[in-house]
Write a structure and sequence with these properties.
38% strand, elongated, single chain, three-stranded antiparallel sheet
């Protein structure tokens, strides 16, 4: 299997904390794995909740980039777990361990 993974982001929730405006508190990440040989895609989505930011490294909502969101995902979840789950699901679709058969009568 040759799987590529893409991340999509949505549902960004922002708030005000002290003097900081548009503080990102949470967002939704969807990781989509696609097996290039079979064309089968499997998505897994989850919410990322962030702690209060350090005022010195604060990133305002308007300054977000995909790479910033990627780094927050990498810091807050075990991405390998999700990618392995996707890979195992694709493998099970391609090579099912259980097959439902009709009765022979």
């Amino acid at each position: 299997m040759n799987i590529t993974y893409v991340r999509e982001y949505s549902q960004v929730m922002v708030t005000k904390e002290g003097l900081l405006k548009d503080v990102v508190k949470s967002f939704y990440c969807n990781i989509i794995g696609t097996d290039l040989d079979s064309g089968i895609s499997v998505p897994i989505g989850f919410n990322i909740s962030l702690t209060s930011p350090d005022p010195n490294t604060f990133v305002q909502f308007a300054d977000l980039t995909p790479s910033i969101l990627d780094s927050w995902v990498d810091e807050n979840v075990d991405v390998n777990y999700y990618e392995n789950t996707i890979s195992n699901t694709i493998n099970e679709i391609i090579n099912p361990s259980v097959i439902i058969k009709s009765l022979p009568f």
